[in-house]
Amino acid sequence: MQTTVQPPQTTTAAPWRIPAFRRFTSANLISAAGSAMAPLALAYSVIEQGGGAGSLGLVLATNTLPTIVFLVVGGVFADRLSRSRILFLGNLLAAAAQGALAVTVATGHATTLSIAACGLVSGTAASFIVPAMQGAVAQIVPAAHLQQANALLRLPTNTVKVLGPVVGGLVVAASDAAWALAWDALTFAVAAVLLLTLRLETPPAPRTGVLADLRAGWDGFRSRTWLWTYTAAGAVLVAAWLAGFQLLGPLVAAREYAGARDWGLVQAAFSAGLLAGTLVCLRWKPYRLLTVAVATSGALALPLAALAAALPLPVVLAAALLAGVGLDVAIVAWSTAFQQHVPQAEQGRMSAFNGIGERLAIPLGYLVTALAAHLWTPRTALLACAALITAAAALNLCVRDVHRINRRA
Predict the structure, then answer these.
(1) Which of 136, 161, 160, 159 lies closest to 149, judged by CA?
(2) In a domain? residue 6
(3) Do 319 and 197 lie in a common domain?
(4) CA-CA distance, 124 to 104, in Å (whole number)?
(5) Residue 174 and residue 171: Cα distance in Å, rounded?
(6) Does any domain span residue 157?
(7) 138 and 260 belong to one structural domain
(8) CA distances (Å), 134 to each of 90, 99, 130, 131, 336, in order?
């Protein structure tokens, strides 16, 4: 059975009543179920073949680098070709890469180089999948229901993020990393099969060269003040959050709290907040979409400030919960604003430029934080990260254009 999707503006059907959206959501959930286990399995596949921190760093770098290098190319193709076809091929490529990795690990032939090569292919697949997904939702769902659709997409994904690492840890502990990697490959393959029967029309766009499309995309990105200022603020915010929560958080938990046990509770509280934020978005439909996205993203400063001040654990857990709620509300509100205010023919490139802007600062954030750790205590560095997040959100709220990107009837 094939599902051909026409432009959604002519219908007012709720997202779950649209067969194409149910198929798209199912594919997204299934691939997420495998991807949630992948980081843990990838780490232990390196460890099992004798690799250390340097080997793991190389593998993670090769997995991340393509999403920066090829993301713009993926955005151009998402605006020139059928997005459903790109999603199908991207998931199929990821399935092949993870399947090959699972076989090499299972047979004992895995090396750091082979694992890194498979990671490079998986990262390349992701760089084409990400821009295509943003525009695909807007092609499937009517504009009036975009926020609901974005929330419904995140609800099962956030649930999987809570359960996936736990299940992955049990699978790796009971057998080895190869089984978890094989599961990841299988979920990508099943998602590809579901997407194969989804037919999204090619976005209407002038047939020019790839370089001309890139230049036009960059001009469109620069001309939208709200878009590039949000991206610039997001680069600072994402780098400060990841450096603070992923790098400094465990160190402070080890010194000021009960180590891994309490840090696990903090992470669980944050994940629970993400789920709660999704439920909020299913009910609350703010008019000032971009203002809400910017303001709620500032909640990420709360757990970093609480950890920096060494507040009691219940306060830190509450702060992490609120941060999760704020982040998910921000993501849903931002996605809805983006889909409503960027033309279909440009959404792939605009999404790619936004994604690159936010990703480029992450390695720099880790590096600066690592250097600052030699000059400051982890608690002081955490406080600096919280201040950067607050400043980025506050300055972005001062941009007049941000308050003009509101919900369209």
Answers:
(1) 136
(2) no
(3) no
(4) 20
(5) 5
(6) no
(7) no
(8) 14, 26, 7, 6, 10
d(CA 275, CA 152): 11
Are residues 196 and 110 located together in one domain of the fold? yes
Instruction: Specify whether 199 is located in the same domain as 294.
Output: no
Domain range for residue 323? 220-404
Largest Cα–Cα distance of the chain, in whole Å? Answer: 62
Please give the structure tokens belonging to residue 196: 């194969």
375-408: pLDDT as tens digits: 788 888 889 999 999 999 999 999 999 999 998 8
- The one-letter code for the residue type at 236 is V
Instruction: Please name the residue ranges forming H helices in 81-224.
Output: 83-106, 112-140, 146-174, 177-196, 210-223
pLDDT in tens, 108-158: 888 888 888 888 898 889 888 888 887 888 888 887 888 888 888 888 777
Position 69 in a domain: yes
Does the pTM exceed 0.85?
A: no
Is there a contact between 277 and 334 (Cβ–Cβ < 8 Å)? no
When divided into structural domains, the chain yields a total of 2
CATH code assigned at 190: 1.20.1250.20
Q: Using alpha carbons only, what angle is made at residue 124 by residues 275 and 270, rounded to the nearest 5 degrees?
A: 20
Q: Which of 94, 124, 91, 96 lies closest to 198 in space, CA to CA?
A: 91
